[in-house]
Amino acid sequence: EADIYQTPRYLVIGTGKKITLECSQTMGHDKMYWYQQDPGMELHLIHYSYGVNSTEKGDLSSESTVSRIRTEHFPLTLESARPSHTSQYLCASSESGQGGTEAFFGQGTRLTVV
Amino acid sequence: DAKTTQPNSMESNEEEPVHLPCNHSTISGTDYIHWYRQLPSQGPEYVIHGLTSNVNNRMASLAIAEDRKSSTLILHRATLRDAAVYYCIGNRDKIIFGKGTRLHILP
């Protein structure tokens, strides 16, 4: 059973609101990731982190920002939500290493901006 | 990280073996080959990974070509619960997903 949690699972919010999607893991993993996925489409990496105080943008440009102040916590923030931000957001974590480690995924947050 | 190519979709009958191919001709010597799958309405889950040798676990087997330019995920006896999108990823660092193969299982 993966110990990585995302809250909320579902969020409907109005345009212009600030939102924070939470992601926490209890496995002590250094690497953490955020992906964005529209229905029926592929996952796009939007942010990742190698450890505390390390964050980098992924392959898909995103208006969201992330922080990594604690190993176990990797929140994603949208300062001003827009309908174009409507999507599913998935968080993942893995141990450090040269690619030979398994990643664990949360259940996702389905965001709808109206 | 290596670029991978997979068929868009495949079909298989229930209780029969399934062989899902993946081409990764640009893979480097230190890139691992990972397979994940995503069931409907769920986040991806890890299936298997390997570097050079064939690998087996309780979910599947991974056969890696000798030149490492391709690999095959083998589900030994498909069930309806195996219907999912299967992603092959060649990575050393970040996990970058492609379009994957949508596997349909026929009862």
Question: What does this protein look like?
Answer:
The complex is a heterodimer of chains A (114) and B (107). Chain A is an all-beta fold and 114 residues long. Chain A is built from no helices and eleven strands. Chain A has strands at 4-7, 10-13, 19-25, 31-37, 44-51, 54-57, 65-66, 76-78, 87-94, 103-105, 109-113. In chain A, the strands form two sheets. In chain A, strands 2, 4, 5, 6, 9, 10 and 11 form a seven-stranded mixed sheet that branches. In chain A, strands 1-3-8-7 form a four-stranded antiparallel sheet, with no helix packed on it. Chain A is globular, with a radius of gyration of 13 Å. Chain A starts with a strand and ends with a strand. The mean pLDDT of chain A is 93. Helices cover 0% and strands 47% of the residues of chain B. Chain B has strands spanning 9-13, 18-23, 32-38, 45-50, 55-56, 61-64, 70-75, 84-91, 101-106. In chain B, a hairpin with a 6-residue loop joins strand 3 (32-38) and strand 4 (45-50). Classes of the chains: A mainly beta (114), B mainly beta (107). At the A-B interface, strand 5, strand 9 and strand 10 of A face strand 3 and strand 4 of B.
